[in-house]
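Q: what sequence does this backbone want?
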């Protein structure tokens, strides 16, 4: 076991794995997470700053939860996080669909695709499928 300083409150604690946060701060964070999750459910149109203010949470923390796919943002929410590769607005995870596809093809660093709107593309495909269903 390893002893570390808590990143949040600075107290020493027995570090196991994951983020270097002591059990007390971890618990507090989990409570905040539950609050934020509930708040987003009740306030679908809230921005990250509004959520941060209302729940006294760091906006960075909220983005972190979204990246970890713990917080799920609806399509009509004004909230966006940035693709870590090209900066395109995304709703979840670390990369936009275009960058994910690039990486899957191992072309990530070689080719820069224009910024796409991945969510919309998916929708178009779904609409087309729906249309085919009717035929
Ligand atoms: Zn702590
Ligand atoms: Zn991207």
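A:
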């Amino acid at each position: 076991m390893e002893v570390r300083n808590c990143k949040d409150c600075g107290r020493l604690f027995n570090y196991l794995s994951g983020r270097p946060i002591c059990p007390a701060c971890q618990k507090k964070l989990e409570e905040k997470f539950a609050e934020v999750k509930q708040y987003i459910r009740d306030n679908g149109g809230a921005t990250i700053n509004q959520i941060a203010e209302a729940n006294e949470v760091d906006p960075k923390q909220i983005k972190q939860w979204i990246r970890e796919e713990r917080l799920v943002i609806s399509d009509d929410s004004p909230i966006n996080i940035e693709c870590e590769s090209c900066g395109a607005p995304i709703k979840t995870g670390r990369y936009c669909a275009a960058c994910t596809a690039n990486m899957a093809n191992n072309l990530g660093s070689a080719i820069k695709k224009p910024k796409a709107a991945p969510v919309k593309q998916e929708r178009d495909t779904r609409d087309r499928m729906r249309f085919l269903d009717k035929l």
